Amino acid sequence: MRAELRLFGKTKDGRDVYAYALQNKAGMRAECITYGATLRTLMVPGKSGKLTDVVLGYDDIAGYENDVCFFGATIGRFGNRIRGGRFWLNGKNYALPLNDGPNHLHGGKCGFNKRIWQAEVLEDGVAFSRYSPDGEEGYPGGLSVTVSYRLSEDNALVIAYCAAADDATLVNLTNHSYFNLAGHDSGNILAHHLTIDAPFYTPGDSGCVPTGEIAAVANTPMDFTAGKPIGQDIRCDFAQLRQFGGYDHNFVLKNGDAPFRKIALVQDPVSGRKMQVSTDLPGVQLYTGNGTAATGKGGAKYEPYCAFCLETQYFPDCANHRHFEGPVLQKGASLLTTTEYRFI
Length: 344
Description:
Elements: E1 4-10, E2 16-23, E3 29-33, E4 38-45, E5 51-53, H1 61-66, E6 74-75, E7 81-82, E8 86-89, E9 92-95, E10 104-105, E11 118-121, E12 125-132, E13 143-151, E14 156-165, E15 169-170, E16 174-175, E17 193-196, E18 200-202, E19 215-216, E20 228-229, H2 239-242, E21 248-252, E22 261-267, E23 274-279, E24 283-287, E25 294-295, E26 301-302, E27 309-313, E28 328-329, E29 334-343
Antiparallel strand pairs: 1-2, 2-3, 3-4, 4-5, 6-16, 7-10, 8-9, 11-12, 12-13, 13-14, 14-29, 15-28, 17-20, 17-22, 18-19, 18-21, 21-24, 22-23, 23-29, 24-27, 25-26
């Protein structure tokens, strides 16, 4: 496999952004750009063999610079929300920018998704790296980060995250791709059939920040353990769905027999495409694009429920809840996590 390199465009301040295209022998193709270490395109065969782009995105760099949806981006230093933008670490209180009402979201006003990364071609993919200095977006300690995208010959996109800390800090890295297995421009995903191996979830307050409760999904619309269409219960009279207009929740994943395990399966009944998600992380955020409003690739109109996200993660606001597993990195420590999106 060989990565094809092209100039994707220039930012408003004149910096070059490059695109790296990967293709396996089956024809599956992924394109990633150095702006935000972003997955821009994912061409996947359906039951007829036809290749279709199944992730939302933009045609040019201006789209990504103006983007507020985080399409395909690497999220950091901390994915998801931190209540009030504040946390304690080693006896010191830190204040972060508030960019989601009264809360901090996805690394701040200029998170990893708004940075240009260095790129290195791998034998089966591409690795993006950057150094986040002490104090960037309010976070303590310097952090060296590498995110690699690898495309296997059996149609799996593997994303590996590696981080090493100069001093104690928080790290919660994820990818924010929006998927529509029928095609990025094909309408809503309410008929997609979703299974999540999660017996619990973390209910959110009105700002979508976990309350601290870990609640059972059984006998609620949050239960995807046996699988069901995403839209089956999305409009039902359930407080957690009413307040967000759909799903925007962290699911507590079943541990399984090994740290890296299959945690979700999604199927589009029309195209026949199936996507299996595996990870070694404890949680996954299901987001059904409730507030999506953008014009994307090829002029496609992206609207609510036009795609879903499955963002593998540590729990949101974990630094403020002792019973949540949290990604605190002490000085000299490192973190390595892997998530796989396999098309079967």
